[in-house]
Amino acid sequence: MSSLAVIPGDGIGPEVMAEVLKVHAVVEDVFGTGLKTEVLPWSADWFLEHGDVGIDVLAVRRDHAAVLLGALGDARIPDNRHAIRIIGGLRQQLELGVNLRPVRLRALAHCPLKHVTAVEDVDLVVVRENTEDVYVGVGGAVRAGSPAHVAMEVGVHSRWAVDRVVTAAFELARSRRRRLTLVDKSNAMPSAGPLWQGRFRAIAASYPEVECDHLYVDAAAMELIRNPARFDVIVAGNLFGDILSDEASMLAGGLGVAPSASYDPEDGSFAGVFEAVHGSAPDLVGTGRANPLASVMSYSMMLGRLGLREAHAAVERAVDEVLCGDLLTPDLGGTARTGDVGDLICRAVARHDKD
Ligand SMILES: NC(=O)c1ccc[n+]([C@@H]2O[C@H](COP(=O)([O-])OP(=O)(O)OC[C@H]3O[C@@H](n4cnc5c(N)ncnc54)[C@H](O)[C@@H]3O)[C@@H](O)[C@H]2O)c1
């Protein structure tokens, strides 16, 4: 029997994760996946009480097949040290260099663009480099606090990391509609730009069946709104991928339905970390208004990556059913509560073998 590490985290993290665990119990009943769960209490509360002690991300990979993460972020830790330690630690120490953020419209009503007239027009994946760029913590401040304060945040881009994420994006594009767009800001980044462009061109030579194009990030932000149907797979660095994927999520209903998977493409024994794109949403805590679907969809991505195809298909179908119905949380215009949506998913999955 394999084990899943579950990190509910902060804010709405525990609320949405409770729904994922309900869904997992039904999946276990229907499909017998043999995946037991172990809840790890790492959160702002934990960090304030214990500091770093006991947060051993390398042990997570040794003991578990995958991680389900709720969200991390708490106003009591304004520099976000605990989240950087936990999420950053998982991504960097486990070399989870590839972050997939799919955006697929399931019912036209969820797209705010009046010129999108078919659900098929919004079906894309942002493939984000997950370990480098300005997220590495390299930099410093000079004369902090004075009028002459200087701050530096260094963007790091290694050929190794670029190669891994670009190759993963080509592999994904090959399995989809065979179109890959590189997004960067090479016109203003004379050091990182040529590395990304050069490696993209070199790797493209091994994928002649994939149609390639390139957009500067400012143009890509506009094109996502103007003509989302032009995109199949987008590959970008950590910062641009982070921003564009939040923007793209709005095309399909917003952060409440934006899942993600982070993984090491060379590690066959550890499936990765699966978490909603959204944060801890302090404005929603305790209101019952948080949409659990982004976390359920991340769980579904995990099932797919673990090769549990039938269970994955059943959860996807349940999500489709919910998003095409009218029992929706307020972010999607409904009045349902977090637990109502979780229950609906559970019932749809449980019906699976009776259909
Ligand atoms: N991976 C992560 O854990 C992660 C990601 C982003 C932000 N954060 C942290 O989360 C905290 C809050 O950040 P933020 O407000 O910028 O981003 P956020 O994603 O928490 O919230 C942004 C907006 O989206 C809404 N929203 C988010 N999740 C939702 C859901 N499931 N259902 C319905 N609406 C939802 C919120 O109500 C809010 O209006 C910060 O501490 C930040 O550092 C964590």
UniProtKB/TrEMBL annotation:
SMART domains: Iso_dh (SM01329). Residues 3-345 form the Isopropylmalate dehydrogenase-like domain. Its cofactor is Mg(2+); Mn(2+). The keyword NAD applies. Keywords: Manganese, Metal-binding, NAD, Oxidoreductase. PROSITE patterns: IDH_IMDH. The keyword Secreted does not apply. It comes from the Bacteria. InterPro entries: ICDH/IPMDH (IPR050501), IsoCit/isopropylmalate_DH_CS (IPR019818), IsoPropMal-DH-like_dom (IPR024084). This is Isopropylmalate dehydrogenase-like domain-containing protein.
